[in-house]
């Protein structure tokens, strides 16, 4: 499949593109949205969810973006690592912070498997949450 | 395998247990460390890395703990979700923050697969990082 | 490693290649089989299983191909996404169907993680299966 | 965290619960929604997406449910396997179809790794899609 | 679904069960095969592949079993970790070897993510294989 | 980010690079370490763990390298597959052994999902470990 640009997009798709550009103060949407435009319903759902959740709320926007990067690394999604580490930098992440993020991602993926390997039972103290 | 308690632990293992308890101001270490004690070298490496990286640095300790939870959810590690969401609460995470974290984890796992599905090419703008 | 073409293949490998070509009415086998030919036993096992399971049975062949694509997206396997979405189109999948498939894959990966995050207990009604 | 039942739910959550019950002709919503209710915004987004995508469209509802099961197996999500195989049966899946689905999931996860292992290059013929 | 025991199994299933018992010198097959018996074709394919590949060959049987355990830990498959670590012990794995295996699994999952995070380009020297 | 070469590296990074080169008898370190050098603490931790665990111990060095390859295939990490299959060959792995390894990785990923799909209960006999 190919990217769907603004010129060839349907009315419904353009409405989402316009909202993305206005919300993010960009001249154009990035490739992710141009491909997702092949399914206008899903485009609308994904954008609506992302717009609602990824702004500042109980967690600040940078923290959320760093979490996004961590998951994208764990899942080995190239596009997602590139786009969300770009976004993290745009929201103020320093190189030192990204490096520290990568260290945490490495440690978590290590200890996740060690916990699996030993089939560690959950401590009583952790069961209250 | 079984947990290795302080009483039955070797000198090398006790030294790590003592450092964990002193650093975290706890009376006992949790199950993860008691199982990892079956391999004293790895116990020492993992604790040394976690101690060094998970404290406050370029990123604050709570942000790192939230990233840990996000990865544990993505990898479906029961013990890790329980222990790190407990730690996140202990470091001040509110229920609202945890719920928002879960929302981000859901969205990231969705958009990771949509980016895969459409094999979206990386935008030029994202290649600078 | 390199692809093993028909000319350089052993008798055992040629026999499998011939069966693939006859079954699928193709002039040549695709790259997957030419690499798997490095292990003639596994080549035979994999082809035998795929031939037996992927044809029409209780589920029609297109449905099975779509399931294959969904898993390949979830696992982020480039070759598998390319070859099985090609096969799905060859078996009649429309662009609308593929887009809808991608939407389902996105949703399932999202709700899988939300179920993990909240450690949702299985409803009694679901335990009969 | 605990399930949020109808009695203790907020107005916004009840509205979603009511729509789920009316759409699915059920007396109560299942546990997934009662936990997701901890984040009313995400509850609304997830339900809205699922309602819109999982009904009959370009793909029939049963096919989509089978794809959901396949991904849940691949991700090893207990709750998701239980709830979506239940839903698949409710939509008419026979035991023979579920067994065949499991076979396809097994094969796909095997061949995904074999394609990775040999780093098989994508055939020219597959690049048109 | 339920386990299918020898008494209630079809002729085709019994033939596979008999071969498993004779090959492994056991009085009964373990649960995995009793469930897989719901799909006699797949039962036959899986057993045939496992029997052919998992015995001693270019790699000894214990090494293969350890690899199986490592993958089962990485995928977080409870049944698979239990059955294949049991098999590894039966084939002579010591506790020290299993602990060392777990350490390697932890390290590999850590460095896999660090390589992803930094998007490390493949060294020229590694491209010959 | 870019690779950090010896010339531009800090003292702390050079010390680790020197130890890698001396231990492995190489003229230069490979790219993985040059990128990880962006976080000197993590560079030191990872190298220290890898040096300590990946040499001969209860398991021989080749077996550990093969386990590393198996996990890298399962996680679909390109760099890791390339570097660790190179290392496995350097430690004496034959092509026949690598092909057999790939077969085991394929089988394990298949049976992991079949065990998930049928939610096979752990046999009593396997619970002793």
Task: Write up what this structure looks like.
6 copies of one chain form a homohexamer. In chain A, 53% of the residues are buried. In chain A, 66% of the residues lie in helices and 0% in strands. The first copy, chain A, has 6 helices and no strands. In chain A, helix 4 packs antiparallel against helix 5 and helix 4 packs across helix 6 (95-117). Chain A is an all-alpha fold. The first copy, chain A, folds into 2 domains: 1-54, AhpD-like (Up-down Bundle); 58-129, AhpD-like (Up-down Bundle), CATH 1.20.1290.10. The longest helix of chain A has 23 residues, at 95-117. The first copy, chain A, has helices at 11-24, 31-36, 40-54, 61-74, 78-90, 95-117. The interface between B and C is medium-sized, with 20 and 20 residues.
At a glance:
The structure is a homohexamer of 129-residue chains. The first copy, chain A, is mostly helical and 129 residues long.
